[in-house]
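Title: [Solved] glutathione transferase 3D structure

Original question kept below for reference.
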Amino acid sequence: MLPVLEIDGKPVAQSNAVARYLAKKYDLMGRNEWDAMICDVLVDTLGDFKQETDVQEFICLIEEVQNKCIQTFFQTTWADFVFAAALENFEYMFGASALDKYPALRALKKRIHRIPAISDWLIRRPFTNS
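Solution (posted by the thread starter after getting help):
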């Protein structure tokens, strides 16, 4: 199932395009154009890493990117939400302890999941295995 956002009766179904649109609309692109570009780099890099066949290498690269880039922001960005969702999927696929060796990634996911609206949604959302 693809996520679809309908705007003025027109469906948009590409998840990163939808996320980027909503990030602009709700001021989640960062403080300036540089931050916005770093968000794009992070999300696009995450997409590249998903092609990685070595899971250990994949998660190490993700933590390296997170340590270098995301911590430079002083506000939550759309990239944080994308990473939190990817990390949740990673734990679903490889078990609840999959992030134990990666405290920065676990902390990022927890920080996003503690946002009241996110926390509420996580409690009441329907279960999906994707």
